[in-house]
User: What shape does this take?
Amino acid sequence: MRPATDALIVIDVQNDFCPGGALAVAEGDQIISRINGLMDDFATVVLTQDWHPANHASFAANHPGAEPFSLTTMPYGPQVLWPTHCVQGTKGAEFHADLRTDPAQLVVRKGFRAGIDSYSAFFENDQTTPTGLEGYLRNRGVTAVTLVGLATDYCVAYSALDAMRLGFQATVLEGACRAIDLNGSLTEARDKMRASGVALEA
Ligand code: VGL
Ligand code: ZN
Assistant: This one.
C-alpha cells in the first residue's frame, strides 16, 4: 500500500478511446489489467470521464467543412477538432467494461460545457476554470498523484502538467497509458512533462 498522501488518477478509460471506439487509441484496452491492479495500492482512487454534450465545440462535425484532426482556434487558444466522441449518456462515454470502478471514490466528469474542451482533470482548456479535483485532493491530504490512462499525449499529459503547476508531485506510468500521437504530439508532451518535473516511469 502506498502512503495515504498518494492518489491514483485514472484518465478516460472509456469505450470511445478503446479499439472499436469513435476516437480509438491503439491498444487503449491493453492497459486496463495493470490499472485494475494498481487500484489496490492507493487509498485514493479517482476516475475521470470525458463527458461531452452532442453540440460540443471540440467536434469537427459541429464545424461545417472541418475535417476531424484538423486544428482550429478557440477564444482560449488552438484546439484540435476531434471525431464526435464520449457524448453524455452514450455507450462510447461509458467506462470500458473491464475497468474496475468500485475502488474509485470520485468520478470527475469533464468537457461538459459546449463551448470549451477539457483535457486536464484539473482545469478546462482555458487553464483557469477548475474541475474541483484540486480541492478534493487537498481536502483528502493528497500531495502526490500517479496518472495512468488515455491518452498519454492529451488528457494524461495535461493533467500531469496541471498537477505540477498546482504543487502536487506527479508521476506518469507510461506503460499504463497509450497515446494518440498526432503530428508529434507524444514527443512534445513527453518533453513538456519532463521539463516541468513530471516523473515518467515505465
Ligand atoms: C482526449 C481528445 C479529446 C483524451 C479527450 O482523453 O486524451 N483526447 N478528448
Ligand atoms: Zn474529448
Residues 152-165 form the longest helix (14 residues). The chain is about 20% helix and 25% strand. Helices lie at 32-38, 133-139, 152-165, 185-196. The pocket of pyrazine-2-carboxylic acid (ligand 1) is lined by residues 12, 17, 50, 82, 119, 150-151, 154-155 (CB under 6 Å).
